[in-house]
Write a structure and sequence with these properties.
206 residues; alpha+beta; Ribosomal Protein S4 Delta 41, Chain A, domain 1; Structural Genomics Hypothetical 15.5 Kd Protein In mrcA-pckA Intergenic Region, Chain A; 9 helices; 41% helix; 8% strand; globular
Length: 206
């Protein structure tokens, strides 16, 4: 599946909840899901009860849209999680949380994961002092993520960081120096997303 390039608000309407894909727009009254809380398309308002498979599929799609990943990436992360010790569903979510674009978003250095992904691709961040421009790069406990010295001159970063703040306790953020350090592995309790991961495991286990 190619990356979605259409109106992102339609993805929220399709899932029936806010995925917070547009940053600040998601918090205002003009958010489309507030006025059109039904699936897009001709038959959006006549949504039928989902089958068991339909529920599992929607949960997988929801996670893909939260983190902005493709179908092949989702399958890869699931197989990684399945080989790890512990509960597969929780392993999947905690692995997704350590993607560099998500870490940048969680640190408060971007208004949305999509914006964080773009900033990473444009080379604005370093990991342990080395530039990393791969959004899917998996960070580890102890890694230091920082805005490049040259990029710190961009006033946009200062405004975003001051207004957002750190949102997780597994990363220590130094807003003044525009950097943060991962101090613990994220746990399921740290992930504030309405996801029933066991449905995804059931889907891939068929």
């Amino acid at each position: 599946m190619a990356r979605h390039t259409g109106p992102v608000c339609k993805q929220c309407r399709r899932e029936g909840l806010k995925l917070f894909l547009k940053g600040d727009k998601c918090y205002i009254d003009k958010c489309p899901i507030n006025s059109r809380n039904f699936a897009p398309g001709q038959h959006g308002q006549s949504r039928k009860k989902l089958t068991e498979y339909g529920l599992q599929l929607r949960e997988k799609q929801k996670v893909k849209r939260f983190y902005g990943i493709s179908e092949s990436q989702m399958a890869k992360y699931f197989h990684m999680a399945d080989k790890m010790k512990g509960i597969t569903g929780e392993n999947l979510l905690t692995t997704l949380e350590t993607r560099l674009d998500n870490v940048v978003y969680r640190m408060g250095f971007a208004n949305s994961r999509a914006e964080a992904r773009q900033l990473v691709v444009h080379g604005h961040f370093t990991v342990n002092g080395k530039k990393v421009d791969i959004p899917s790069y998996l960070c580890s406990n102890g890694d230091e993520i920082a805005v490049k010295a040259k990029s710190q001159e961009n006033g946009k970063f200062k405004v975003v960081i001051e207004n957002s703040g750190n949102t997780v306790n597994w990363v220590n953020v130094n807003q003044e120096d525009m950097k943060g350090t991962i101090v613990a592995d994220p746990t399921r309790e740290d992930i504030d997303l309405p996801i029933e991961e066991h449905l995804i495991v059931e889907l891939y286990s068929k």
